Each structure stands twice: as C-alpha cells, then as structure tokens.
Records
---
Amino acid sequence: MNSIDYARENKQKHLDELIDWLRIPSISTDMAYKPEVQKAADWLVDSMKTAGLENIQLIESPFDLHPLVYADWLHAGEDKPTVLIYGHFDVQPPDPLELWDSPPFEPEVRDNNLYARGSSDDKGQTFIHVKAVEALLRTEGKLPVNVKFICEGEEESGGRTLSDFLPKNKELLKADVALVSDTGILSADQPSITYGLRGIYYDYIDVTGPSIDLHSGMFGGGIDNPLNVLGHIIAGLKDLDGNVLIPGFYDDVRELSAEERALLAQLPFDEAGWLAHTGASRVWGESDYTLVERLGARPTLDVHGIIGGYTGEGGKTVLPSTVHCKVSMRLVPDQDPEKIKKQFRDHVLSMAPDTVTIKFGDDTHGSIPSITDYSIPPMKAAKKAYTAGFGKEPVFMREGGSIPVVAEFQEHLGLETVLMGFGLPTDALHSPNENFHLPNFYRGIETSIHFLTEYGKA
Ligand SMILES: [Zn+2]
C-alpha cells in the first residue's frame, strides 16, 4: 500500500480522531480555559507520537500563557530540504452560542461539512500535515524531506509565546521553507495559492486646541476648532481617487511585473458578486490598477474612526477641546512599517496649524508585508501537489490581509512561506457554525503527501 492508499483507507479513522481533538474547548483568549488549551497541546503531542514524529517537545510559555509543541523527523538526508510546518491548536471563543445549529464543541457532520469551533481554523488544517506524515512513515518508512513542526496555542490571542521563542531558537527551527495552513482556497473545485500578504501600520491622532470645550457663539471665529483641523488633516491624507498623499509613501512599493499582472488577471474573481456583498454602488480606487491588484498588491490608507465634539441628539454649538481619529495603512512589499510611521507622522504634523497640538498613539507598531516568489522550488511543488490533490491546477493570488506569523518567520528565521490553505470562504471562521468541508480535509492530506514528495524531488 502506498501513502495515498493509506490516506484513503483511513478516512473515517482520521475524521474520528479530528473530532476527538475538536471536543477540547481550547479557547486561548479566556484564561479560564488554560487547562483546555494545555489538553489540546497534550493531545497533539500524542497524535504526533502515533504519526512517528520524533523529538516531540511540549514547551511551556515563559509568560505563563499557553505552550508550544515542537516535533521533527530529520532522516531524509542532508541533501534533502527541511520544511517547517506551522499550525495552531487554540480556537476563537464560540459566542454567540445561540446562533450555532449544533454545539461548538460537539462536532457534527452535516452535508459533508464538519461543524465545530476550530474545525477549519486551525485544528483541521494542522491535523492534515500530521496525518500526511503518518501516511508516509507507515507505508514508506521514511519522509521525502526533513520535517519540523512548530504549533502554538496563542494564535487567536496575540502569539506572544511564539514571538518570544522564534528569535531565541533559530537553530532548532532552521529550515529551507515554512509551510503554513491557516488560510483558504477560492472554492472546493478551484484551489489557489496565496503568495503575497499585505502588512499594516495603525496609528492614532489626538488633536487638542483649547483646554475646555467652548461656546461657538462666544469663541467661534476667534479660537481654532480642533475638529475642523482634524477634517483638514484627514483630507490631506488621501485624494478622492484613492491616491495616498503622504510624501514618499509609494517610494518602496515593488511595482508589479507584466508577468505578475498577467497571472493575477487569470484569477476567477467574481467582481459583481463581490460588489453586491458590499452594498456599495460601484467599485472605486486607483484607476491604473485592476480591482484584484488594488486589493492585494497596492497599499492603501483608511480612517476607521473619528471621535469628537457633540454627537448627542439635537444641536449643540461647541468647539471641542480634543478630538481623536484612528487610521491605518495596508502596506505591500517593500514598504517598511517603521519608515511609513515616520512619513505619516511628519505629514500630519506638517498639515497641523500652530493653534493645536498633535499627539500620536503610544507603542504603535505594524507588521511587515510579505511575498513569496512563486517560482521557487517549494512553490512549484505546492502547485503540483494541489493539481494532484484536487485534480485542478491552482491559481496564484495575493491577499489583502496580514498573517503575523508569516512576517515573523521572514524576519527571525529568514524563511519564505508557502501558504497551503484548505479552508473555504464559507467556513465561517471566528463565527457561529464554523465548519470544515470534509472533501478538503481528505484532499488536504493527499495534497500534503504530494507536496512533501514533490519537494523531495526538487
Ligand atoms: Zn487560524
């Protein structure tokens, strides 16, 4: 029997095991569930032992938070590459409970979907790789590449323990590429590989004028209004066509090559459906770029909140003392959040008159954007693997959001990441009725086997 046959013959066993893991309510944000996160980690340790992994370690958090789980299998030979596989075994809180059709920690299969908190994000996806390793070791006695696993229990609550661990354990985690399965594909019959993620920089602006709120009849025209000033500042951040007006903002943006634009143009993107979902009257943004490019490969700036003045019922003629605003910038390679922070703040200060004082957020930080060259061997292996596992060639795409761990692998370990997602847009991550499409679970195990095999040949 080969490894693919093994995966197919053990479908029910693999599903039963995953269901067992999903019964543990490993909610990391609520410390009342700390023993449950620990239980989920212990469960993973046992499952890794069963799979034949070695050097399995449960690493306690130095902050008394949640543990990490490490394991490896390093006998493929020195000439073979090493893959660092990441996953997380903590889950989001299940609230609001009343909106679940079946209890979040009593997994139930309906219409070929497995309903449970953590089924897709991320226990189901993490388990795929453990089972792929098991299938290969049971049938072939060895893996085609060297494999290391690093799994955490704090992905949904800040990831402090892993962030501390990575820079201190560069040798232990040394690898040629990282493999992260914590994302999705376009649809059940159209696999996709995300090769780019945007970064972010988030800041706060406080504008203060007079020391107390003033009456506009007595002071209006004689004292500047911080709310008017804030409006002026916001208007100077971005024009109506979507161009960010901060000097130097676009300096480090890596322009899309003709080849990449052609690749992104092939994405089967349902623009009408996407627009209908928003309820907006039309799409909008930088006219020199397509919508897909604007969403994944272009930076942007958005104001998220303004607080200030009188917002109660009826009119009140007040000049507010202090007003506040929240703003973020989504960044693309090779923009650096620290440099953007300085450019943003300098620009805001340059627009503020001397009638007000400006204060920015304390301890603001960003995450760096990341991109993986889609022509490197592990990406080619991933492409072949999806084609074999799903029976259809994957498309390549960039995503507008951020996955902090990808940026951290790049920053601390110098690793590029292959994002091998198996979720679907309908998985209801973080929402009631989270589910994992079972065909994706089974195909995922086969795809992982194909990936390790193909990458071993590279
Ligand atoms: Zn996740």
---
Amino acid sequence: MLFSLKVKGYKLLMSVFKILVKIIPIPKPTLFTGAGSSLELCSAIAQMGTRIILIVTDSMLVKIGLLDEIKKSLSQHGVEYVIYDGVEPDPTYDQVEAGLSLLKENNCEAILAVGGGSPLDAAKVISISATNHKPINKLAGWFKVRQYGLPFFAIPTTAGTGSEVTFAAVVSDPVTHQKTPVIDPKTIPMMAALDGTLMTGLPQTITAETGMDALTHAIEAYISNNSTNETDRYAIAATRIIMTNLPKVVNNGHDSEARQNMAMASCYAGMAFTKTAVGYVHAIAHQLGAYYQTPHGRANAIVLPYILDYSQDAVTDRLAQLAIVSGLQTDKETNQQLAQKFINHIRTMLKQFNIPEQLEALKKVDIPLIAKAALKEAHFNYPVPKYMDQSECEKLLYKMTI
Ligand SMILES: NC(=O)c1ccc[n+]([C@@H]2O[C@H](COP(=O)([O-])OP(=O)(O)OC[C@H]3O[C@@H](n4cnc5c(N)ncnc54)[C@H](O)[C@@H]3O)[C@@H](O)[C@H]2O)c1
Ligand SMILES: [Fe+2]
C-alpha cells in the first residue's frame, strides 16, 4: 500500500482519539502545591478516612530517607502504612504483581505513590489491578479499565513525567522489556502533591534528564496535530518555565524556588500531553529504553533535536512561538530563523547538561527493528505533525549512532 494512503488512515484514527478525549471525562486530581504540600496531602489522606495505605516507592528513596517525614505525618494522623519499595526504573509486570500481593496481604484500602514516574506508574497499575481482577496485559491499551481503582494518591519526586496528572501508566513486559502503556482516565490519582523540597537531593544527571523529559512533553504536545487551545496554554507555560528553571536546578540542586517551578512545569506539561499524546521522540525513546535500558529522560533528550529537525518545515510557526516564549527572539527574525534558533538552543542545553548527541549503546544492526517498532507505536497512538516511513526513520537513527 502506498505510504500516503496509510498516512490518511493514521490521521483518521488520530482524529477519532481527539474526539474520544473530548467526550470522555478526564478528571484532574486535587493538587497540593508548594513546600510541605506532601504533608498536607498526608492529612487529606487521613481525612478521607483511610486506615491503612500501601506506599509504593523505590528502595533508593527509602534509603536516602525521603519518605521519613511522610511516614511520620501519616502515623501522626492515625494512618497505618505498608511500604512496597520494589519498583525499579521502567517498572515491570512482576513488580506490579509483587506490590499487589503486599496490598492484598495487608488489606490496604488505598495507595500512595512516592517517587519518579516509575513508582507512580507502578502504583497506578496496582490500584486498577486491585479492583479489576484482570491480568495486566488485559488492562494495557486504550480505555480497557472497567472499574475505578482503589483510592490513589501521588507525590512525584522528579520533575519530569507529569504522571501525577496523566491518564497513562507505562509498564514493561519483563521478558521482552517492551513497554505497554495502560491508557485510561481511571489511572489518574484523586490527589497529588507538588512539593519541590523533595527534589533538592535529586542528582544532577537525573535532574537534567527528567527535566528534558518534561520539556519533550511540552514540545510534543504543542506540535501535535491534536493540540487545542487548552493544551497549548499548558505547553507554552511549561516551556517558558523549564527554559528558565531547568538550567538553574541543574547548576544548583538546592535552589528550592527553581525546584518548585520545575515541579509545576512538569505537571503543566503532563496536563498538555495527556490530551494530545506525545510523538516520534517518545516512540523512539521507548524502544531505546526497551533495547538498551536507556533512562527515559536521557533517551528523549538525545532523540528530540533529530525529530525537530525532521518536523521543522511542518511546524515552523509553532517552533517559532516556542522560541519566543523561551526568550530567544532578539531581532525581527523570520519564523524559520526562530524555529532554527529553538532547535539550536536545545542542542546547546544538551551540551551544558553533558547529554551526548549520540547514543553509544545504539547498534546499527538493531536499527531496522527499532524503527519498525517505533513507527508502529507512533502511527497507532500519536498524532505526529509530519509522518515518516521506515527508511526515513532508519536514516534518522543512523545519525544517532557513534
Ligand atoms: N505515566 C506517564 O504519563 C509517563 C510519562 C513519561 C514517562 N513515564 C515513565 O516514567 C518512568 C521514568 O520516570 P522518572 O524519569 O521520573 O524516573 P524514575 O522514577 O525511574 O527514577 C529514576 C531514578 O531517580 C531516583 N530518584 C527519584 N526521585 C529522587 C529524589 N527526589 N532524590 C534522589 N533520587 C531520586 C530514583 O531512585 C531512580 O533511581 C519511565 O518508566 C517512563 O516510561 C510515564
Ligand atoms: Fe516522557
């Protein structure tokens, strides 16, 4: 079949998604924001009548004591807790099953996720698995969840994924490492706390990479074919805040004002991309995560400029607008010049953050299969502004090899 004919089909499918997202109610969690807001959330959890809660987190966060105040606050409010700290970056079905077993053994009534996107996503799937009694692979895909999950609360400790407001959870098959997203509004937490003080100890590399993930969400949402006035507002705000504050938190992790700004920005980017979906950057980054365990944010950061180069002529005006809100306009430049300036600026940021332009792990021999999987993911899920075929995707991936 001619590629142009296929593209017509993909575009039709994406317009159906746009209508679905418009008509299906998408809840927004009650948000507590600012220094100490994680403790306000603990008080709200108690006020909801919760007697025993499962905390889903990772072992590193327990080790560095990030949960200490949260545990103390829950206890002070009379809420018992059980900790599941077995979540690892890019959580697997097994990790979700282990958390679910602990939840059942202890008759937990609710779930509190504390961590980056990995604990948040694992907790989302634990919450809906507890009430839907279905294997995880039957919940994966679009709108497969029938019952509401257990009451679910979230405290992000990275400013990256925006998972606290998105209706997606990404879990991986432990054998193939293939990421299988569960996409359903029932994965959205009831309440979340954006507490920048929990992020001041985030190492420099993770700060930069997760921040680039948030920026990628904002950009992919803004250039998506399914963008709306509402998503544009969030994407623009997120871009403006990230461009000013990400360099600050990478240089000085203890800048608590900039940390709080990043927490807000990553949430705004989440608000934008949950309705528009993402694009080729994420589609390729997910494969790099599956093949080489490249951290999500790093993979996005590396792929981002290549996809922007490719898409530039289809979204010149939009990229120019992003350049303007990023403070890059210095003269009466044309939109084309501004768009190029925006892409150049992203490359400069990557250099400043010590993120390489190529991925050392990427093997040429894997490229055809990586491209195939990325295009499949993108074409059936993401309303990209400019479609690419297999050979174009392969060419682009070759540029990312050393
Ligand atoms: N649901 C969504 O909408 C969505 C969107 C994008 C990405 N994701 C998923 O999120 C996952 C990535 O999440 P992530 O980038 O936030 O990283 P992560 O949760 O995998 O954490 C990365 C590392 O950072 C450490 N860490 C986290 N917070 C810390 C803190 N405050 N101080 C010190 N160390 C800290 C963790 O211990 C871990 O070692 C991927 O699985 C990705 O697919 C989900
Ligand atoms: Fe992401």
